[in-house]
């Protein structure tokens, strides 16, 4: 670089061509490699503000503070160029396009060199930007020293999107993740409860229809004191039957009506127990997508606000914000879909038990 060379290195959205920003000869080489018109100018990136202060005219502390809201980041701003900027770097403009990069490899390169770098997409003018070191080596050969690395789009992961999301989107994601965990805990609990209810119902039906003495069934249920489902219904009805039969002058129809009422009440209690908390699954299934959509709308709005304040619209400017917004919707669907499926399955299972 200090000898006027040109390098290809990884940046936010693609590989970039770079050189020292004060070296007019190297800048002309970059323009020649790209076949880019001289009047368009180039971008300068840096690891921190100290590396670009000499390239721009003095700014007020308030202006630097405002820039600090967006840097380091994918945002490029047009600032008044100082007299130290070669004309080939700014082209026909009085401003210089500068960015404090958030890309780890590009920032590390600037820190290691102790200087800012020219940054323009690694491609010939009008052609698609190159996104890998291998493509740069094939395209430029020995004219450009290609450094290994990956652009930020290749580095994007779900974890990085969540960690770098705005506070509102992070809160939405955290809430949906918590709801999803609670839903799965309830789903596994309900699976166990309904499985036990079916098993106890099958066992009681076998005993009931085997011709066993009803008094013995009732005594066994009282002795265990853990009856559920159909056995609990039978126990309640038989207890009411014995109580009413012990009254003097009780009519058989009154005894049977009382037993039926006791069994209906017990059946309703058992169904309520089986249905408990399933409304939570219904709520999660219906509300979670909308909560995720809120996070998506907020993330997209945040991304476009940042884009409006940037000096240049690139994939690296838009992609992270849109991606983090879509993650919120994905988490909302991840919470909602199992809840809806489980709710429908549990409702069917409870109905089957109720009609036995």
UniProtKB/TrEMBL annotation:
Determine if Translocase is one of this entry's keywords. no
* Membrane topology term: Multi-pass membrane protein
Q: Please give an example of a GO cellular component term from this record.
A: plasma membrane
Residue ranges crossing the lipid bilayer per the database entry: 167-189, 279-305, 325-346
Gene Ontology process terms (BP): bacteriocin transport; cell division; protein import
Subcellular location per UniProt equals: Cell membrane
**PROSITE patterns found in the cross-reference section:** YRDC (PS51163)
| GO molecular function, a single term | double-stranded RNA binding
Which keywords appear in this protein's UniProt record, sorted alphabetically?
Cell cycle, Cell division, Cell inner membrane, Cell membrane, Membrane, Transmembrane, Transmembrane helix
What is any Pfam family matched here? Answer: Sua5_yciO_yrdC
Domain (YrdC-like) ranges: 1-177
- Spell out the InterPro entries in the cross-references: DHBP_synth_RibB-like_a/b_dom (IPR017945), ExbB/TolQ_transport (IPR050790), MotA_ExbB_proton_chnl (IPR002898), Sua5-like_dom (IPR006070), Tol-Pal_TolQ (IPR014163)
Q: Which NCBIfam families match?
A: tolQ
Give the UniProt family note: Belongs to the ExbB/TolQ family.
Per its record, how is this protein called by name? Answer: Threonylcarbamoyl-AMP synthase
Q: Which organism is it from?
A: Anopheles coluzzii (African malaria mosquito)
């Amino acid at each position: 670089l200090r000898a006027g060379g040109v390098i290809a290195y990884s940046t936010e959205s693609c590989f970039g061509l770079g050189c020292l920003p004060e070296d007019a000869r190297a800048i002309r080489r970059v323009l020649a490699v790209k076949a880019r018109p001289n009047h368009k100018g180039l971008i300068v990136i840096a690891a921190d503000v100290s590396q670009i202060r000499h390239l721009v005219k003095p700014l007020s502390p308030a202006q630097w503070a405002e820039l600090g809201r967006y840097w380091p980041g994918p945002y490029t701003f047009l600032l008044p160029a100082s007299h130290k900027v070669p004309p080939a770097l700014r082209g026909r403009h009085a401003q210089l396009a500068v960015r404090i990069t958030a890309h780890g490899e590009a920032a590390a390169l600037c820190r290691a060199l102790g200087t800012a770098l020219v940054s323009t997409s690694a491609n010939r003018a009008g052609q698609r930007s190159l996104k890998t070191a291998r493509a740069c080596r094939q395209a430029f050969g020995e004219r450009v020293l290609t450094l290994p690395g990956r652009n930020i789009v290749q580095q994007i992961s779900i974890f990085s999107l969540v960690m770098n999301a705005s506070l509102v989107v992070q809160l939405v994601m955290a809430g949906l993740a918590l709801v999803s965990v609670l839903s799965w805990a309830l789903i596994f609990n309900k699976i166990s409860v309904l499985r036990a209810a079916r098993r106890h119902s099958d066992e009681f039906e076998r005993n009931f229809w085997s011709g066993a003495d009803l008094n013995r069934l009732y005594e066994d249920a009282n002795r265990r004191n853990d009856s559920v489902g159909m056995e609990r219904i039978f126990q309640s009805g038989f207890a009411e039957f014995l109580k009413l039969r012990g009254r003097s002058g009780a009519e058989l129809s009154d005894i049977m009506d009382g037993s039926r009422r006791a069994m209906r009440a017990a059946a309703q209690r058992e169904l309520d127990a089986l249905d408990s908390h399933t409304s939570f699954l219904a709520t999660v299934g219906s509300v979670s997508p909308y909560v995720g959509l809120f996070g998506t709308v907020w993330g997209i709005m945040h991304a476009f606000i940042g884009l409006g304040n940037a000096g240049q619209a690139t994939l690296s400017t838009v992609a992270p914000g849109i991606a983090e917004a879509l993650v919120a919707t994905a988490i909302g669907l991840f919470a909602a879909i199992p809840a809806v499926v489980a709710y429908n399955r549990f409702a069917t299972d409870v109905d089957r038990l109720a009609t036995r």
